[in-house]
Amino acid sequence: MSPTALDNFINNEHVKPVHGHYFDTFDPARGVPHAKIPDSTKEDVDLAFAAASKAFKTWSKTSRVERARIMNKIADLIESRLDEFARAESKDQGKSVELARTVDIPRAAHNFRFFAGRILHSVDEAADLAGVGFSYSQRMPIGVAGLISPWNLPLYLLTWKIAPCIACGNTAICKPSEFTSLTAYMLCSVLQEAGLPAGVVNMVFGTGVGAGQAIVEHPRIPLISFTGGTVTGAKISSVAAPMFKRLSLELGGKNANIVFADCDFELALKTSLRSSFANQGEICLCGSRIFVERPIYEKFLAGLVQGAKGLKVGDPSLKDTNLGALVSKEHWSKVMSYVQLGQEEGGKIECGGQKPVSLQGEFQNGYFLEPTIISGLTPTCRTMREEIFGPVVTIFPFDTEEEVVGYANDSEYGLSCSVWTENGRRARRVASEIEAGTVWVNTWMARDLRMPFGGMKKSGVGREGGNHSLDFYSELKTICLAD
Ligand code: NAD
Fold first, then answer.
1. From the CB of 25, is ligand 1 less than 6 Å away?
2. What are the positions of the active site (predicted)?
3. Which domains does the chain possess?
4. Which of 44, 177, 388, 442 has its CA 20 to 30 A from that of 267?
């Protein structure tokens, strides 16, 4: 069967890219092309901009109640097609269908429902300056937003941008990752069916240097929300900052997972296995540097290795598959280069480090990698400092709290951290010392969308979640009325 060709979605219509060029995207589990993606250019972005700016005139004036109604309908429709979306996400990204069905797609629906509720329930500020006047703040929609997303949680992260953007009355041009465009494409028909007016959300598919850069460089797109790698974030900033664009950057990480000897051992072990290898380790929040207090180091390492060896790597459509395939051949090679580097730097591969030999037949050319644990590296080496973004973790013993906080913070990144201890005072002390946007104590990946989310240092600029998202996607104005 020849690969399906996707179209751009502009002004509620499926349209071919202006120059008519497409490229292949691959099924990572099989290593074969499965869709043709429009290689959009500036001309396509211009068309999308014309539609989005026209739609802005009415959408920005549409009542919150009506915006929320349509967004709730979008959420309902995504949920009604849960299995279809989950299968497509798995086929495109390599993750297990089960993960997509239980995490990615429900969360995408929840993003719309959450921000639909948020705009209905939020109130702005008011202050009475007695004898002088009365002030209140008003949120204004900003205009056409550029929303650029990565491949690891495709629909989940794209909708985390679209939902607050349109809830606040803006319109959008979205550019999903060129590796994973399928569920964004499917979302377009959901938007149509939910009755979202033409031009409010436009989807322009293509590469970062093509469509992505054209969005960032567009002189009349005043805000850019970007999730992706730190190097790309720097490039985007260098273009957007001198144009005074509003920028939200959610970037890479090298998160520490700190396990104290007084932890709930079984819970820490079980969750560390998940935080190391969920989604093939391709979650920006995965804990890739595991530090374990010396008295339990050997026991924890043995348990982690045993657990990793018990994880099933393979056919993403099977319910009991734990790890599917990495997203692309290029990314597989990059991750493997770190397995090699880890050994050159003196590390010992405790388990994994290879493509599973058992995967033959249709999966023999898939981009699979066994869960890999490397010990014996020092925290200053490249393998322990650079983001790998795959099923590869390092493990290292520590003796004191001060020492481990130093290791955790000695990083260019500052996205998240997990701390495992049953000592409440220590938990609060360590959590407050850690330089990361999110610190979990005795858990991982628990998210409350009302709370701020974002990274410190090279992990990002700005915060999203709750009112932080509303602040990013709207201009706040103060109006003062004299007494
Ligand atoms: P990437 O930076 O290569 O690409 C992300 C998106 O940016 C893609 O849509 C890409 O086409 C586009 N892009 C690339 N170059 C561009 C340019 N010059 N101008 C405009 N757009 C451009 O990232 P990726 O490989 O897709 O994703 C993996 C990275 O994302 C990892 O570093 C991971 O940590 C990070 N990430 C961060 C978070 C977070 O919340 N902080 C969440 C998920 C992923």
1. no
2. 250
3. 4-251+460-482 (3.40.605.10), 255-456 (3.40.309.10)
4. 388
Question: Is ipTM strictly over 0.95?
Answer: yes
Q: Is 276:339 a contact under the CB 8 Å cutoff?
A: no
Tell me if 227 CB under 6 Å of ligand 1. Answer: yes
pTM exceeds cut of 0.90: yes
Cβ of 352 closer than 6 Å to ligand 1, yes or no, is: no
CA distance 145 to 161: 10
- 175-226 tens-digit pLDDT: 999 999 999 999 999 999 999 999 999 999 999 999 999 999 999 999 999 9
Among the listed residues 89, 178, 250, 282, the single catalytic one is: 250
- Model confidence over 32-83: pLDDT tens digits? 999 999 999 999 999 999 999 999 999 999 999 999 999 999 999 999 999 9
Nearest CA to ligand 1 atom 14: 208
For residue 206, give the ligand 1 atom closest to its CA. 11
Give the neighbor-by-neighbor strand order of the sheet with 133-141. 126-129, 133-141, 474-482
Find out whether the beta carbon of 281 lies less than 6 Å from any atom of ligand 1. no
